Every structure is written in structure tokens, then in C-alpha cells.
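INFO batch 0412 | record 1 of 1 | parsing
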Amino acid sequence: MRSSASKIQRALAGSSRCLTSRPPPSLASPNYRLLSVGAQRCLSTEGIPKELWSFPSTEVTTLSNGIRVATSRTPDETATVGLWVDSGSRNETWEANGTAHFLEHMVFKGTAGRSRLQLEQEIENIGAHLNAYTSREHTVYYGKVFKDDLGQMMGILGDIIQHSKLDTWAMEEERHTILREMKEVESSHEEVVFDRLHQTVFRESSLGFTILGPEKNIRSINQPMVKDYISRHYTGERMVVVAVGNVDHKKVVEFAEENFKAIKRGSGNPVAAESRAKFVGGMAVEGSEEAGQMAHLAVGWEGVPWTSPDSVAFMLFQSIIGQYRRGESVIPDKFSGNRAVHALAHNKGGGGAEHFTAFNTCYRDTGLYGFYVQAEESAVEEVVSDLIAANVSCAYSVTEEDVFRGKLGLQMQVFGALDGTTALAEDIGRQLLVYGRRMHPVEFLRRLEAIDADEVKRVAWKCLHDRDVGVIGIGAVSQLPEYEKIRRKTCWMRE
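INFO prediction complete | emitting C-alpha cells
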């Protein structure tokens, strides 16, 4: 798979035709949602590197209990297999916030048929790696294994998901581990800023919950709470089994049927029953001795859901604004084509931003777009103003050159992220959960090339110009303006 992704990157780097050929009319329409499978019929080969058409295809089979099994065959000697679950911290109540993450830890502590030591030894004996993570909307368990040991790894995954013992003593042991993890998270200013941003703008919904949960919850989560979470959310229609590597689809389906047969269908569609997140503008600031003379800041607008017809435009916004780190991104006294980078690199105050990055996060029914920046205390107001202006100006003055440069960067980012079986499995699992299908890379390119400067302006005017924002400041934030002044900066005509 590494060679496939690398070939695609080289082909894209050597060809600009992908960005200039005229898109099919149906894909150019702003109403063409990413849920649609009809896009496959609108794809043409014009201007598309042949390497993209040979990108590994994805086969999908749905089991009787609702679990979808997806495979993508590559020539690798190793394979990645995992379980993607459409449930995370967003699916919790306030009293139970942190349960999804607690469960992720507990599944490795032993099952009815394998002790913790036996699990560890079995994984080590086949040279495999097993890992997991929890996000706001998803939980993922995956393993990297030699292709001949795929069936054994699927047996391990099925066992820990369906038959974990959840012993009380193991929960007490893991409780301390999670509390230490919380301390590590709290020591990262960037992670704290993003948690505070979610808590501020989504404060009326569970999307504002942290993934680990508050300390009082970590100390009180118990076995009945974890079992209740499993019964409610670990159901067949919420799950996708993905295998990528030199794998046979029919064999993987057989392994899945055998090893996940205890998983039951849920009643109806509980995902659809989750409360819709409402974006609310606001501001939160707090001091931090550890931050010294640096301010850690984020400004966020409401973004768009995964399936929005504007989601690719938001990906392009992120690429156009880009990122910057002092001393790395541009040569001193040289001009950067990125207006935001240029403004910060040549800050008139002589200080300015140490680092900034644009971010774009999609969720089931909303999104979060904006920028995170580290700046010296004296430069905070100017840096925030420059970055808001750089984003809002996409509604007025973005050029075709800006769009072209952003598209090149986005292409390299997207296809570079598909390097290896684990990255490809992650992409397949996520797409099946959020789109209900696997999007071919050519379709993504066609959707991207359908966006020109006028389309960027349209979406930016609708979503960024004169809109409420969330503002978070941690550390040396004495120079951060009040919310009303920051809010006015989102309108080009206001002071």
C-alpha cells in the first residue's frame, strides 16, 4: 500500500490537469451531497492520473446482525484489521461522561476465555500490535498483523469486544491509569484549548463533553454503567469490521460471522435519536503559570457535517489558511504566497505568532472550523485580528491562485494520509460510518476540482462572514480583546 500511495502523490505532483479540467455538472452543484452513490456514474478519466484508477477497491458485505464487513486488497505482507464503532463521548449522559473511554481501556484487561496475560502473550507470539482510541463520535479497536494471522487477530478482537470480564479490581486499577492520562492531557495547552472550545460552543449538547470525562466521573464509573453503555451502543448497525492487506474478502466475512456472532442488532436507529448539536458563540479565558509569557488561543466558527455539500470547501479553507511555525515555514524577509503566513511572519511588533494552524473537524450534524495559535502576550490582539481577517477575506478577495495552491496542498495531504494498511483501514472505517459508503479517490478529486474562487467566496460568505464564533484563551491573554470586538472582526465592513 505504501507504494500505491506514493505513486499517487508523485502523479499528482507532476500533473496540474486534475485541477483545471471541467467538472461534471452534477458534481459541481453545491447541493450534491456526499451520501450519494450516483457520483460514481459521473466520473470521467479526463485529466486523472492512471494511478488513481488502480487505487485499491473496497468490497462491503452486511452480516445478518447488521455489521458491515469491508476489505481492500493490497500486496502487503502485513494486514490491518479492526472494528469501527459509531459511538463515542457524544453518546453519553453528563453523569456517565467518560464511560466510552473507560470501556476502551477495560477491553484489554481480560475476557472469559483469555486472561490479561494470555491476551498479551498471544498478541506477542504472532508479532502483532493491538491498539484502540475513542473520539467524540467513534471508538476504534484495530490490530496490525501478518496476513496469515488475520483470522487469529479477528478472534482476539471479537473476544475482547463481546466477552470482556470488566472485573471490579481491574476497573480500580485502570481508574488510576486514566487519572494519570488526564493529567497528561491537562499539561498540553493545545489539547486543553480544543476541549474548552468544544465545551464553549457546544455547551448545550453532549458534543461539548470531553472524551475522558470529568475527574469525578472517572472516580465513579462502575461496571453496571459500562455494561449499560455496551448494550445501548455496541450494536450491529453501528459497527464496521475493516481488513486491509493481502486479504480475501470472503474469508474475512467468514471470520467476522464466526467471531462477532454475539453482537445483536439495535432497536431502530439510535444514532439518529441523538440530540442535535447547537453551535453557540462565546468566550472563555483562563490563566496558566505554565504558559509563561505565551498565549494559547483558538477562534472557531460553526463548520459543516461530514455529508454537507460544502464539506470539501471547508477542507480547502483549511489548506488555503495552512499553518506556520516561526523559523520553519518561511525564510526570514522572504514573501510567502499564503497571506496569513506572510502577515504573521512579518508582524510589525517584532514578535507575533510562534505557531498557528487552521483546523477543520466534521461531525454527524455540525462541524468546527477555525485556527489555533500560540503568540507572545504583546502580539495577541494583532495576531488574532490578522488570522480572523485571513479567514473572513475568503468571502471577498480569494484568488484562483490561492485556490490552486490550496488544492495542491490538500491533494498531497489527503493522499499522503493513505500510506499504509492502517491509514487506509482508518479511512475506510470512517467513511462507512459517516457516509455509509467508500468514496473513490477520483470522486474526491472531481469534487475538489468543482470548486473555484467564486465557490470559495460563496461558502465563506455563508459560513464565516459576520457569524458567531467561539474564542478560547489560555495563558498570557491580558491583551485579548473582549468578545464583542472579536465578533465584529468577522464582518469585513466593521471596525
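INFO post-check: Confidence is low (pLDDT under 50) at residues 15-32, 268-273, 331-335.
INFO record closed
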